[in-house]
Design brief:
51% of the residues lie in helices and 12% in strands. It is globular, with a radius of gyration of 14 Å.
């Protein structure tokens, strides 16, 4: 299993292949299509992430001392962004999620290529995932 840093390095490597941000957005969209969506019963107001322009539902579970997340969104780019976070956070101990730096976002230039409302939504996603992890420390 890859470490927290190795998973982020893998994402950075995937994005380094592309120079054009339109190609990077295509990759983000593809990642969103690959994640297993949240079960319909969990698509409720309690699972909605605050601060997102589009609707994003996030569910978390804790078993065998690691966190696992599932999510869905009504916007394809937003679904891809949450897929990136899930790729890094799934299978990690809550302590790791809370303490370790999420450096891939800056390295791939994601935040500066998002609209202010989408960048705010990204921060909301990270905050919610960290808060869910905090419940299990």
């Amino acid at each position: 299993m890859s470490t927290f840093k190795e998973k982020q390095a893998s994402i950075i490597a995937d994005f380094e292949v592309f120079d054009d941000w339109m190609d990077k957005y295509e990759l983000i969209i593809e990642l969103g299509k690959e994640i297993e969506g949240i079960i319909p019963a969990k698509r409720n107001d309690r699972q909605l992430i605050e601060g997102c322009q589009s609707r994003v539902w996030l569910d978390s579970s804790f078993s065998d001392s690691v966190m696992n997340f599932s999510a869905d969104s009504d916007a394809i780019i937003t679904k891809g962004i949450i897929a990136l976070l899930i790729k890094v956070f799934n299978g990690e101990k809550p302590e790791t999620i809370i303490k370790e730096e999420l450096f891939f976002i800056k390295e791939i230039g994601l935040q500066e290529h998002l609209s202010p409302t989408r960048a705010n939504g990204l921060l909301g996603m990270v905050k919610r995932m960290k808060m869910d992890a905090l419940k299990h420390v």
